[in-house]
Amino acid sequence: MNIIRRTVLAVADNGAVSRFFRSNRLTRGLVSRFVAGDTLVEAMAAAHDLDSRSITTTLDLLGENVESAEEARAAVETYTTILRSMRDANLEPNISVKLTMLGLDFGRDVAADNMTAILDVARDVSGFVRIDMEGSACTEVTMLIFDELHATHPAEVGIVIQTCLRRAESDVRHAIDLGARVRLVKGAYAEPEEVAFQNRVEVDENFARLTRLLLSEGTYPAIATHDLDLVRAAREHARRFHIVSDRFEFQMLYGVRRDQQERLVADGYRMRVYVPYGAEWYPYFTRRIAERPANALFVLRQLRR
Ligand code: FDA
Q1: What are residue 276's DSSP bridge partners?
Q2: What pTM was computed for the model?
Q3: Contact (Cβ atoms closer than 8 angstroms) between residue 142 and residue 133
Q4: Quick check: 1 pLDDT over 60?
Q5: Could you tell me which residues are beta bridge partners of residue 130?
Q6: Which residues contact 66 (CB under 8 A, 6 or more apart)?
Q7: d(CA 29, CA 79)
Q8: Total structural domains in the chain?
Q9: Do 161 and 290 share a structural domain?
Q10: I want to staple 290 with a disulfide (CB 3.0 to 4.6 A). Which of 5, 106, 148, 254 is the partner?
Q11: Taking a C-beta distance cutoff of 8 angstroms, is the pair 85, 44 a contact?
Q12: Same structural domain for residues 123 and 188?
């Protein structure tokens, strides 16, 4: 699995491959499975559809590593518009944001100031902002910025922790001490051995262990996985320790395991779906392809033709 992921992510970086995917009609069909559309109107339609099935949403404007401070400011404008639009549409305002989209590459203060502007609006609309976690080169600075933001906006901001990282347990314990909301994920990036477990079993065991810790001691954790063994383990732990279903939520990605999203709601659990939209879909799309051998094979067949 790890080899497939590394290969797909490496090939996807190639300029010719990127151009091919952006223009190919068949792969655009696959993109629309994972991405709600190019515009906020399309993303809101997806959110309403989920809402009609008692599933909440976190909206993500696609884009990362912006190339200028102006682009970062534009992302702030769009994100604040998203928050207000969700409130006006009677949807719970909830967004997911990457710090490199807010200008992290131009300095820690740029990203922190931009995020503060978003969090002020989140506070106005009683909304919530999740800081997505990017590759391990960003982990330490993201955690430091998160600490600062949580000190001023404790109710409005949460973080993502990746169980592939060796540091995950210490970050989870730190978040528990802060009373901060954690989304637990396996991790979508190819990471070096020094910082990350390379063996899938270790990543999964870490996920199961940190899920138990967060369910028992955390503040409204989000268990974000499509791995049904891990979902089952979370449910069993909650049942065993009488942790009621409104103390946590499950999260899944738009277009992945839709049947299970509905099943969890039918069983009385909270489910939030991560809905990405926007023209800058390529890096997000390649991570989704890299996650699943069947997706990778489909794409390789298109490339061979
Ligand atoms: P795993 O990869 O083992 O998949 C379990 C099963 O789910 C697969 O066998 C397959 O059936 C299905 N599945 C999983 N991915 C699929 C796909 N792309 N297409 C089709 N089927 C698929 N990562 C990160 O590094 N930073 C972040 O901020 C986030 N944020 C985030 C939010 C939410 C709501 C989710 C659900 C996930 C993330 N992730 C993330 C991604 C996460 O790290 C991880 O890469 C994916 O969730 C896939 O891992 P699973 O836990 O689903 O297990």
Answers
A1: 60
A2: 0.94
A3: yes
A4: no
A5: 96, 158
A6: 72, 75, 100, 101, 102, 103, 105
A7: 26
A8: 2
A9: no
A10: 5
A11: yes
A12: yes
**What is the pLDDT at residue 279?**
86
Q: In this structure, what are the phi and psi dihedrals at residue 224, rounded to the nearest 5 degrees?
A: -110, 95
State the CB neighbour count (10 A cutoff) for residue 94: 22
Q: Ligand 1: which of 1, 292, 297 to mutate, judged by most atoms within 8 Å of the beta carbon? A: 292
Whether 292 and 216 map to the same domain: the answer is: no
User: What pLDDT, in 10s, does the model give residues 157-189?
Assistant: 999 999 999 999 999 999 999 999 999 999 999
Give the mean pLDDT of 47-64: 96
* Range name among 15-24, 64-73, 87-96 with the lowest pLDDT average: 15-24
My answer on whether 268 and 128 are in the same domain is yes
pLDDT digits (tens, 9 = 90+) for 87-112: 999 999 999 999 999 999 999 999 99
Range of the domain at 147: 36-280
* Beta-sheet pairing, 157-162 with 271-277: unpaired
Residues with CB under 6 A from ligand 1: 132-133, 160, 162, 185-189, 224-227, 251-253, 256-257, 274, 288, 291-292, 295
Residues 256, 191 within the same domain: yes
Return left, alpha or beta for 256; rule: phi > 0 is left, psi -120 to 50 is alpha, else beta.
beta
CATH number of 132's domain: 3.20.20.220
Tell me, yes or no, whether 239 and 294 share the same domain: no
**Distance (Å) from CA 94 to ligand 1 centroid:** 19
Q: Which protein residue has the closest C-alpha to ligand 1 atom 9?
A: 227
61 and 128 both lie in a single domain:
yes
